[in-house]
Amino acid sequence: MVYACHCSLCQRQSGSAFAMAAAFPGGSMTMEGKEPAVFLRDGHEGRRFRCYYCPDCGSRIYHQWYGDAGDAPFFNIKPGTLDDTSWLKPGCHVWTENAQPWVVFGEGEVVFARQPPVPEMPRFDP
Ligand SMILES: [Zn+2]
């Protein structure tokens, strides 16, 4: 699942109009090299995030939603950090109630005013 988040926190974090994320099942990633730097932040509606950054360049690599019950069963890679970004296209847009007014959503695009329940978000199907 690849999505664009237009929430105010993602606008601030990305320094742009929206942030993109690609969700993968928890435990499906291995990392090599340096340990990433970690930053904890609160999200909207009580969500909490562990945000992982490259300790050298500061690029955000991925983030993990977590709560009192533990980690969400998926994590979100920042897809702009992948070697091949040519396939990137959001399957949906979330938090569009905060979208910048010049962002225009195409006909047929899946948009959610806020964060939908995860099962409602379309899955990437290459
Ligand atoms: Zn967001």
Brief account:
This protein is mostly beta strands and 126 residues long. The chain has one helix and eight strands; from the N terminus they run βαβββββββ.
Task: Explain what this protein looks like in three dimensions.
The protein has one helix and eight strands; from the N terminus they run βαβββββββ. The chain is mainly beta. It has one domain: Alpha-Beta Complex (glutathione-dependent formaldehyde- activating enzyme (gfa)). Bound molecules: zinc ion. Zinc ion is lined by residues 5, 7, 9-10, 19, 95. Residues 5, 7, 9-10, 19, 95 line the site of zinc ion.
SSE series: EHEEEEEEE
SS elements, strand count: 8
Q: Major beta sheet, specifics?
A: 8 strands, mixed
Name every ligand kind in the structure: zinc ion
Low-confidence stretches: none
Number of helices: 1
Distance between the termini: 10 Å
Q: Tell me the count of domains.
A: 1
Question: Would you tell me the structural class of the helices and strands?
Answer: mainly beta
Detail the topology: elements first, then pairings.
Elements: E1 2-5, H1 8-14, E2 19-25, E3 37-42, E4 48-53, E5 60-67, E6 70-71, E7 74-77, E8 92-94
Parallel strand pairs: 1-8
Antiparallel strand pairs: 1-2, 2-7, 3-4, 4-5, 5-6, 5-7
Bound molecules: zinc ion.
Keywords:
binds zinc ion; 126 residues; globular; 1 helix; mainly beta; 8-stranded mixed β-sheet; glutathione-dependent formaldehyde- activating enzyme (gfa)
